[in-house]
Structure formats: structure tokens, C-alpha cells
Model the fold of this input.
Amino acid sequence: MNATLDRALLDEVSGFIAERMGLHFPEERWPDLARGLKTAGEELGFESPDACVRWLRTRKLTTRQIETLASHLTVGETYFFRDPASFEALEREILPPLVAKRSREGRTFRFWSAGCCTGEEAYSLAITCARALPDLKSWNVSILATDINPKFLAKAEAGVYGAWSFRGVPGGLRERFFSPVSDKNLAIAPAVRKLVRFGHLNLAEDVYPSLHNHTNAMDVIFCRNVLMYLTPDHQRRVVAALHRCLVDGGWLVVSPAEGNDLLFPMFSAESIGGVLLYRRNPPATRVASRPEPSPSAPARAGPPSGPARTGAPTLPRPPTFASPGANPLTLARTQANQGRLEEALAACRNALAAERTNPTAYFLYATICDELGRPRKRSKRWARSSTSTRTSSSPTTRWAVSTGRSAGRRSQCATSRSRWSSSPREARRSSCPSPTG
Ligand SMILES: C[S@@+](CC[C@H](N)C(=O)[O-])C[C@H]1O[C@@H](n2cnc3c(N)ncnc32)[C@H](O)[C@@H]1O
Done:
């Protein structure tokens, strides 16, 4: 196979794949790249890998074609409770204070498994929440799970797993949270299944945080064994964007192999139960503890600009909220990204009071209503505005069309709701009035 793809083509195509998917194929991984291109070429109907690669060079690929390529070039190794120390840290150290705080403030959590593969990580998060919250039904737990590979997502949605996925599962959990569906397979319990919403998201291209793909105001993000497949440049960009997706005090969890001193300068690194976790703006009273950098553990990525850190963050803290004098639409977006949805709704109304036909403000207003689980009444103006800027969607709308990328590039009004934005949020359900009365 390698013989049929010349080195110059592989070099060129690896650059293209890095650009569109963030995937890193240095020369030593060209055999993997060539294998993936061969099977992708077969699926796309090409007679030879060479023909596929030549076609890749000349075409602007659609999202669907990128997904096909991704399904042959990504690595799908995962299992339940992989790296159990991370889940122990979550259960013992992160969840108890979060539960105590949120018991007083809305009884809600937002978690994200970014690069969720076939779903085992997301369901492990859901099981951890179910164990930590005996009164689970009175909480609004939202676990977002995204991946670039649609085949992985289809398996994740099905929630049915064979023995190999359970190789790390602590005793008793299998019986409590799964039920047999055949001799060999177990299905995740519906009560746990419904906590997780799966969707397509390309970490290298899509925009996040964004209300449109529900990547805003996260309490905890698991992005494990994903960064290691990305180019150093994409690693830095993804980490910076994930940082913005977290609420103050929120946590980023990467795999033990991915922790390094240089990639996370905007986080405070904390060692919990032997696992290094990254925290956004921890409360001032909490002293960041972090093991000394090991000289024998070289950084995987090249150094981002900025000083090396030794403890608490040394980079200036970015402002958490937009300044009071900010444009109301900017303010609304910032507040929404911070999870301050009621305030964001009020700021949207102010934006619409200032500019009554602004489709972006209408779109944001509608998205926040959806996020709050509130039906929105439509004013005539809203209806006009949304029809003039609507994008197409099918009943099985994939997130690719409702991501911030789409929203950012086109001034769209979404009547298309992603498949999980309609999930019930009874606790906060009430009606959103027409934004302009
Ligand atoms: C090795 S799996 C890790 C699964 C899980 N997080 C774990 O640690 O067990 C890596 C996942 O990252 C996904 N991935 C790779 N590049 C991606 C990208 N640009 N956007 C989103 N997901 C990506 C792959 O499709 C794959 O499912």
C-alpha cells in the first residue's frame, strides 16, 4: 500500500488532514495514514488509494466526507472507567463540593466528554453522577459527549457493549447499571442513558464554547487520549478553547500521558489522588498544589508562549464577564457562556430593544430559551426574522449544522434544534415570552 502512495502525496495529505481534523500524522505514522486512506478510499468508491488522495487534493470536502475520512483515521481505543484514578478524583474530590454548592444553586451539573469515542467515558461519567446523587431525579445532570467519528457516535448512541468494554469496571457496577441484551452484550440502564447527549463535534474546526452546540458553562470536561493525536498547534488551540468552555473553578481532565507543564498555562494544575487535574480559576482560598515538573518527562507539545508556571497561575486572569458598558449582545453571549442564562436573556431583550430586527439577537434569545427548556412564544417579527435566515435541517439534525461554526459564519436563526436540545428540563421549565413583547 505504501508503495502506491508516494511520499510527496502522503506529506501533502497529512498537512490537509492536520488542517481539517487536527490529526497529527508525522512521518513515523505514515503507515497508519496510508492504511486509513486505503479503507477510506474503498468506502468513498475509489479504485486505488492513489486516486482517493489525488481527489482529496483537488476538492473542497464536505463535512460528511471529512467524517468518512475521520472514521478511518481516528483511534477508537476506550473502555468504561479507563484510568480509574480520574473517576475516583471526580467522585471523591470534585463532586462533593460541587454537589454541596449546587444543592443551594439550581441543582444542575454540566459535564462534557470531548472525544467520547464509542461512549464508554461519557457513560462512566453518568454512572459516577448516579452514584454520587442518590436523589438523581431531582437534579438536572447534563453530560455532553462529542466526537468527530460518526461511526463511533452511532455505537455510543446505541449504548450496547461487549465484554471488552468492561475490562476496567469495578465490581457490582456492571450488574447495577447494565442489563443483558444478548449472550454477549449488555445495554446501559435507561436512567443513566438519558443523562448523556451525543453529538458530532470536530474539535479542530467547530466553534466552542457556544450555546449552539451546548459546549458552554461546563463544570467538568474529560478530554482524555484525544490531544495526543492532534498536532501541537491544535493541542494548544483545543486546550485554550476548552478553558473558555469551563465555568470558574471548573475542571479539565486529560489522560496521565497528556499532562504536561507547558500545554496548560492558563490552568491551575492540582494533584488529586496521584492524578494531575487542571482547574480554571480556582477559588482564591484553595492553594494549588502541583508536583514538581519531572525533568525526565519531556513535553509532548512545543511550548506555548508565556512563562512556565510553578503553582498558582502566573498569567493574568482573563476577565470573567463582559464589562458593564459592553454591547448588550456581547454581554448576553458572555453571560450565556458563563451559564448565567437568566441574565443573558435579559441582555438579549436589551439588545432587541436597541435593534428590534437583529436576527443574531433573536437567534441567541431562542437558543437560550431552548437551553432553559422553555417554549418560546414567537412574535411576528421573530417569525419573519427566522424564516429569512433559517438554515436547512432534517429531523435527525446533526450538530454539524447547529454548531457555533455554522452560526458564526452565517447569520442564522435556528429553528433547527439539535436532537438533544429538546430534552426535558422540568426543574426550570416555564415559558419564555416573545422577546420583544
Ligand atoms: C483514543 S479515543 C479516546 C476515547 C476516550 N476519551 C478515552 O479516553 O477512552 C480518541 C477519540 O478522539 C476522537 N477525535 C480525534 N480527533 C478529533 C477531533 N478533531 N474532534 C473530535 N474528536 C476527535 C477520535 O474519533 C476518538 O474517538
